[in-house]
Each structure stands twice: as structure tokens, then as C-alpha cells.
Amino acid sequence: MRRKIIAGNWKMNMTPSQAVALVNELKPLVANEEVDVVFCVPAIDIIPAMEAAKGSNINIGAENMHFEESGAYTGEISASMLTDVGVKYVVIGHSERREYFGETDETVNKKVLKALEHNITPIICCGETLTQREQGITIDFVRQQIKVAFLNVTAEQAKNTVIAYEPIWAIGTGKVATTEQAEEVCAAIRECIREIYDTDTAEAIRIQYGGSVSAASAPELFAQPNIDGGLVGGASLKPDFGKIVNYNK
What we know:
12 helices; globular
């Protein structure tokens, strides 16, 4: 059985002092030894959030990183900067990064390779727009995103990645893909990994669903055979995140 991983993506929310207060508030609520819990936070919040999370089951991750080791990339953060403070997870290729900051499948691939080089687990995002779903090309589109993201990634490295399927039309809209829709795409992603690598790798990799996940929708979503947890946006900033993490209790 794959261990569930439930990650909060704070996006551009929470000052450092607010981050500490939120971590302290959520610590007892997200205690669950049966799942991996990750808070992916703004860069300025990483160190204070880590201090606040000490002694708990919370891992602190980053929301983005650059694919170069160092250099003239004003405003960017490198993998070595993240590992130096103990970061183990990073969100890569979120649809908001793609839409607002010009990230492409190719830059996502470069970031995945750099994260793996530094033993950081990349949470690789993929997902379709409403137009693409209505055109019936969801599976083809997501498969392309996955194939490019895993270019030159070895099977052993792939097992240490997480994939987050987030239909763009469901992010922050209150709309949630039906359980059947979410499971269908996550199953297709696993099949794509099987085609790239092998069954062993496909069965090892963890695939999350993201997109307006709530305490109400989590139990049914996470019960699906190909959904191994969630990447949670707005709900990760509220006490209800504890109910999502403890969906199985």
C-alpha cells in the first residue's frame, strides 16, 4: 500500500508571524501517523514555519525553486538553499506558475531534475483547463505534461516523486472534479508512468488530487485506488485541514 501524502499549498498567504501562529494552531489537528503531512509555504515563511513545526509530524516544503544551481537570477531560490535549511519537498509546475510566470513543460522538467539531484521530493503538478476538458483532450494533455516532466528521470528517481493532478477549473473555484473524474485521470497518469518505466515504478509513485479538496470530499477521493492523497489550497489555511488529514478517522 502506498502511504498517503496530504500537502497544503499556502500560495501567497501568511506573513512569517502568521505562519508560526498557523503551524502552532494546526499541529495538534494534523497529527496522524498514517499519512505524510507537508505544508508548502512562501519562501520567507520556510525557516520560521520549520522552527514552529519541530517535534511534530509536519514537513515544511517550498512552493517553487529555480533549476540552476546559482547565478544571476534575481528573486529566485535554488535547490541548495532549500536543502541547507532542511526542505524535503517542493511544488513544481503549479498551474498558477505556468499561467502567471510563463513556466513550461520544459522548465518543469529542468526543475524536477534539479530537485532530484538534491534529494528534494518534487510535487509535480499537472491538469487541464475547462476548455480542454470540454474538448475531450484531458487525458492526452495530462499525458504530455507527465512525459515531458519525467524526461531523463530514472525509474529509481521517479519513485521518489509525487504527482499532483489538479484540474485548473477546480482550483479555488469551489468546483470539485467528481470522484470518477479524479480517479480516471489519476489512473491514466499511473498508466503513463507504467508506459515510461514499468509496473513497479507505476505502483510506487504517489499521485495526489488537488482542486477545492474539502473535509467533506476527502474521504471518498482518498479511498480511490489511484489517489494517494491531496494537494490542498485554501482549506490548508484553516482548522478544517485537520479533518482532511484525518480523513480516515
